[in-house]
Design a protein that fits this description.
Alkaline Phosphatase, subunit A, nine-stranded mixed sheet
Length: 501
């Protein structure tokens, strides 16, 4: 018997654990102190005779088309009608209300409420019901042999049109920026949260490089409220995204050896920690937190050399750096993150989640034309450079690139606060695109209505992106279940087969 630290009520202690703790003596105390220092406590061991769930083998379930993913996320919600789904009807009917056009009023469509879940009460929510049409703020043209329509703010990416597969009938359910989490986890903020897509990839597949993380994050998470976008939740902390900075001298907080400690001293310290951890692991074979900590220490030690090398751009030619716009102030930040993504994937990182710009940057409630013109210029060249670079290295054949945002923007003029030149959040229909391994290039799949309001047909909820990415990696999203954490049908999504080669 032993007592609780907060009262004198006896609590039971299994005989095996008691003897193990007694046998470890001060060794056990040392291990406990180190784990406590790192914010880790011993996980509750499974009851005797109760089996834990089977962790995936780390191998693809069927022949994969892709080895790695570069997931490019633009925070804030870019306007689909001013980027990849131009709608000339907006200009033709500018200033009219929806019910004065020859088209069906989208606000009266059953899709309007069926796909939408507002946190504010419906009677006070006006964010998606602006009825006065706001014209397109930029022209557009057809590009490539595929003839896909792209607006004039994307001159460099337009040259890659025949490498891209656009999905123009995406939809989500949250009209606030928690949708940034939703596109990565599949869950609305009012529901129990789920692991992010990157965490599921980490959980389901083995590593391609023992010296680097499987799931790396560049430029994010963008805000304290978007941590779920890279989190692993009940899969365990070992599957969460690892944020890196682009300073080769200090890419990971606490990832460098203390200057006061020699290499030999650090090696001895890690050796002692490893022996203590493994000694405890023998006595606590079901302790998942302990196993994760052992792997974390091993990876941290290896990363001290491998991560700085991966983030060092010195070996890159001047021409390559120009492709990414590293020689221009407007494109340098996005370009560095995307070049780093290519270098990490090249070295075996499975999933790189890239935020080319900061939290809410694309959120153009006002001055949409000025904002989008500037923002498109900041990422157009670097993204096109990434595709060009991957292609010339033969890496586009084994890497899938996803380019997305959390929602589109309203066809109607936002009038809150006296607004006169912007668009509000719009979850009912927006556009993303794919490129690379297993993708049918030069494809346009799905559409929104004439005004760009609703995704037509069944459309694609955000977890359809997840299912598609996992399929390309050789995983069936529906098999990634954890007993006791059964996911909803919508969490699994459906593969977007129309864009697959």
């Amino acid at each position: 018997m032993k007592t609780s630290p907060t009262d004198s009520t006896p609590v039971s202690l299994p005989r095996r654990q008691f003897l193990a703790d007694l046998g470890l003596g001060f060794t056990g105390l040392s291990l406990g102190a180190m784990l406590a220092r790192d914010g880790v406590t011993r996980a509750g061991a499974a009851e005797e005779g109760v089996a834990k769930w089977a962790v995936p083998t780390g191998r693809a379930q069927f022949v994969p088309k892709a080895k790695s993913v570069i997931w490019i996320f633009l925070s804030g919600g870019y306007s689909h009608v001013e980027t990849f789904d131009p709608k000339p009807a907006l200009t033709a009917h500018a200033g009219k209300t929806f019910d004065k056009t020859p088209f069906a009023n989208p606000l009266k469509s059953p899709k309007h409420h069926a796909r939408f879940r507002s946190v504010p009460a419906q009677e006070v929510n006006v964010r998606d019901v602006y009825p006065t049409i706001y014209p397109m703020q930029i022209g557009f043209a057809k590009h490539g042999q595929s003839g896909v329509e792209i607006t004039d703010w994307w001159p460099n990416l337009a040259r890659c049109a025949d490498d891209l597969a656009f999905v123009r009938n995406m939809w989500t359910t949250d009209n606030d920026h928690f949708a940034e989490n939703q596109i990565h986890t599949g869950r609305h903020r009012l529901e129990e949260q789920q692991p992010s897509l990157g965490a599921w990839v980490h959980y389901g597949l083995g590593t391609l490089n023992e010296n680097l993380p499987k799931f790396v994050v560049l430029g994010g998470p963008t805000n304290s409220t978007t941590r779920w976008s890279i989190d692993s939740l009940y899969l365990g902390p070992q599957h969460a995204g690892v944020p890196l900075t682009l300073d080769p001298k200090n890419p990971l907080p606490f990832g460098q050896r203390d200057a006061r400690q020699s290499v030999e001293e650090q090696r001895a310290e890690y050796g002692l920690i490893d022996r203590l951890n493994r000694l405890a692991a023998v006595e606590y074979p079901q302790d998942e937190a302990l196993r994760a900590r052992i792997k974390a220490y091993e990876l941290a030690y290896k990363m001290q050399m491998s991560v700085p090398e991966a983030l060092d751009f010195q070996p890159e030619s001047a021409e390559t750096q120009q492709w990414y716009g590293l020689d221009q102030d407007a494109t340098k930040e996005a370009g560095r993150r995307l070049l780093a993504a290519r270098r990490l994937v090249e070295r075996g990182v499975r999933f790189v989640q890239v935020y080319p710009s900061g939290y809410g940057t694309w959120d153009s409630h006002q001055k949409l034309k000025m904002n989008h013109e500037k923002l498109c210029r900041s990422v157009d060249l670097p993204v096109a450079g990434l595709l060009r670079d991957l292609k010339q290295r033969g890496m586009l054949e084994e890497t899938v690139v996803v380019f997305c945002t959390e929602f589109g923007r309203t066809p109607g003029l936002e009038v809150r606060g006296g607004g006169k030149d912007g668009r509000d959040h719009h979850p009912h229909g927006f556009t993303i695109w794919f490129a690379g391994a297993g993708i049918k290039p030069g494809t346009v799949h799905g559409e929104t209505d004439e005004l760009g309001y609703h995704a037509l047909g069944e459309g694609h909820y955000v977890t359809d992106i997840h299912a598609t990415v996992l399929r390309l990696l050789g995983l069936d999203n529906r098999t990634l279940e954890v007993p006791g954490r059964r996911r909803l049908e919508i969490d699994h999504g459906s593969v977007i087969t129309e864009i697959l080669a």
